[in-house]
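Sharing a chain and its predicted structure for anyone who wants a worked example. Both blocks are below, sequence first, tokens second.
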Amino acid sequence: MGIEVHRLVDSLARDSASRLVAALARRLGTGRIAVAEDAVQHALLQALSNWPFKGVPARPEAWLAVVAKNRALDLLRAEARGAVLADELLPLAAPSVESQGRFDRELNDDELALLFAVCHPALSPEMRVTFALKTVCGLTVAQIANGLLSEPSAIAQRLVRARRQLEASNVAIAAPPPDHLADRAESVRTALYLMFNEGYSASSGEALVQPEFCVEAVRLARALARHPTTASPESDALAALLALTAARLPTRVGLDGVAQLLEDQPRERWDRSLIALGLGHLERSARGDELTVWHLRAEIAAIHVTAPSAAATDWRRIAAIYDELSELDGSPVVALARAVAVGRAEGPAAGLAALPVTDGNPYGEAARGVFLTELGRREEARHHFETATALARTEPERRLMERRLRI
């Protein structure tokens, strides 16, 4: 019974906690998101304590909702300002949880409203990602700190600052009005993209990938694309981009702990179900008239996952897409990726010429080393691989550069 209860509570913490937090937070306001989180956490702990002895209630989610609501009221009364809020607190509807795939759970209106709040432009990009991981995805401070390679105390402080900033900015936990919806939805999409990137290519540490970040980003992007308020070609394009890229997660690092380049990844291990999901979203993204950065990035991702090999990839098409993307996003990251595509399409000399100045960027140094090697300029290449090794952000990438130096 004890083990079964633990499994059930784990499942509820993963699938229902964010909905309960969102429902409470929406009624309490941005100044009390922490109260909502504490109340739901209390309810989960009470379930672990009571259910092994008293049995699992017929409707576990409804039981959690009631306990969480009562706990929130207790906390508010302790603040000596709960009477008015207590009257405003509406009964929580019991969430209906059906067994769904890890990428399929939809957002209800409460969760969507909370997602808009925690991804508000008033917050810095790092605050949005951290806040969304904590409040909407339900990850613990320790999990977020581990994934973002920070100290738990620093993450906790960041969350406190974010909550205070939302409260000071008087941000409501609600879907934005129609005239602000487009901008706010774009802010949410950008936060999800950053969340995914942090999971797909960690900024430092022992691990190159943090799959749980990617899974949550894909789930939220798909939910965004399906919710009536945020469904749009842009949202479908983002969902396509993240799903198609996540399909390659299993091969990002080899069994020997060395980061694997795209051309070295065993394509038979790519996740076919995610590729199918991504291509479906990409097809739906074509219903609009506007070509966005999400559409262009998603098309590049689709070309990669549908090519039979790196050599057989349509690099000329990818280089052309990067030309278009550069018009919308002039960042050094896009310029570097474009140069790599040019090098594959037209040869290493063209790629080398297209490389932007990438001082301090390990990927730029590595790309320069690869092109110089292919041109037979090995001594020059060695210098850049050494620099890339010194700048490597993660251990698997450092090992890859060291392997390059031994060739």
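Comments welcome. The CA atoms of residues 19 and 294 lie 28 Å apart.
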